[in-house]
């Protein structure tokens, strides 16, 4: 099921239930706001001061509910719990709740396509894209010919065109890893993909040939079965393949970004396919400001790396 379904389902149920109870139940008054009052939100004496050109000085604004911005505040947790209880009580009054749930779920029952790229400069041009299908949590990447894509378009995409190339669910034993960023080699024979866990900002770069799919593997290994041996930890979402497709430039953090005991610093390095990442050459050292990252590009003639 899509990640946003639970939130969207709740919002839809609230709206539809309100209409159902208010109009269908009619005079029976199924909901009494006096018997079911909204949770009270305390007000605090908090103000914010901002510069104002119009006022030619500072203006002060009251912000009595700023405490709600702290998710860990016990009062915030209590307020949220009270809201949830009220919502569940309200929804329970709806006689058609099961039918409404089903209709909302069906509204989200579609193929969610993204990252569609057409590589017309490949030896054999192809489409590369991802899709999340109904009742699936992770993306599946596909490779399709122009003819397959055109046939699917004319038929209004009854099924994803082409062949499965990579299943995100097969990237890690717990099926929670996802691809944050990817880049194909310039000869369109390989793909570098950055695999991250949960909401991490950095992860591990893996390399896979485009003729080596990761579909229903016999075993689950980090980065997926059948990939090349190359694995680069603490990678960030910027990578540029060299013009000969034998390696790439990439950004790497000195330590994992989720390490709270350190201050990760970004460097730019060069990797050659088939060599251990420990031997990679560092081209650019961390910036003096630890909050700055590097972004990579090529000059127009392809002779220079722009950082």
TrEMBL record:
According to the entry, every stretch annotated as the Peptidase S9A N-terminal domain falls at: 58-307
Q: Which UniProt keywords apply?
A: Signal
Pfam families, alphabetically?
Peptidase_S9_N
Signal sequence coordinates: 1-26
| Keyword field contains Plastid | no
Q: Does the keyword Signal apply?
A: yes
SUPFAM superfamilies given for it? Peptidase/esterase 'gauge' domain (SSF50993)
- Which InterPro entries does this one have? AB_hydrolase_fold, Pept_S9A_N, Prolyl_oligopep/macrocyclase
GO MF entry, a single one: serine-type endopeptidase activity
One GO CC term of this entry?
cytosol
List the protein's name.
Prolyl oligopeptidase
